[in-house]
């Protein structure tokens, strides 16, 4: 579990620069060599029972709206927390670093 947490932390650090302005707000931290960036794969569900799937390479997490920890994880097994699931975006927190991920805009490039 500790190795998974370390790998997940490294993956987060490989995202985009935190706080950098983008079309939809701050982005994930910039990826480092050999690491893959966090990406929001999908948001599923109906009404208030929504799930968000986040991936970094082969590692994945599924968050339930209103629950800070990914499904199947304990506080000691992952440093990644869900702060908000709203519209087509999620706001995650890892070690006090705010990460904002959004779904692509319907196939439009940009």
In short, what is this structure?
The protein has one helix spanning 2-13; strands spanning 39-46, 49-56, 59-64, 80-86, 89-94, 97-102. It is mostly beta strands and 110 residues long.
List keywords for this structure.
110 residues, mainly beta, SH3 type barrels, three-stranded antiparallel sheet, 1 helix
Structural features, described:
- Residues about 15-30 have low confidence and may be disordered.
- The radius of gyration is 13 Å and the shape is globular.
- It has a single domain, classed as SH3 type barrels, CATH 2.30.30.830.
- It has about 110 residues and is mainly beta.
- A hairpin with a 2-residue loop joins strand 2 (about 50-55) and strand 3.
- A three-stranded antiparallel β-sheet has the order 1-2-3.
- The N and C termini lie far apart (about 35 Å).
- The chain is built from one helix and six strands.
- Helix content is about 10%, strand content about 35%.
Q: What number is the mean pLDDT?
A: 75
Report the sheet-strand fraction.
35-45%
Q: Which architecture does the CATH hierarchy give at level 2?
A: Roll
**CATH topology annotation:** SH3 type barrels
Q: Assign an overall shape.
A: globular
Structural class: mainly beta
Strand order of the largest sheet: 1-2-3
Tally the beta strands: 6
The level-1 CATH class: Mainly Beta
- Taken in chain order, the helices and strands follow as HEEEEEE
């Amino acid at each position: 579990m500790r190795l998974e947490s370390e790998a997940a932390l490294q993956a987060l650090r490989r995202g985009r620069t935190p706080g950098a302005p983008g079309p939809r707000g701050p982005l994930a931290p910039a990826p480092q060599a050999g690491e893959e960036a966090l990406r929001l794969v999908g948001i599923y569900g109906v009404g208030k029972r929504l799930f968000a799937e986040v991936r970094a390479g082969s590692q994945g997490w599924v968050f339930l709206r209103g629950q800070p920890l990914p499904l199947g994880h304990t506080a000691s097994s992952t440093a990644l927390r869900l702060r908000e699931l709203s519209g087509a975006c999620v706001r995650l927190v890892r070690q006090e670093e705010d990460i904002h991920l959004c779904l692509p805009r319907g196939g439009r490039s940009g």
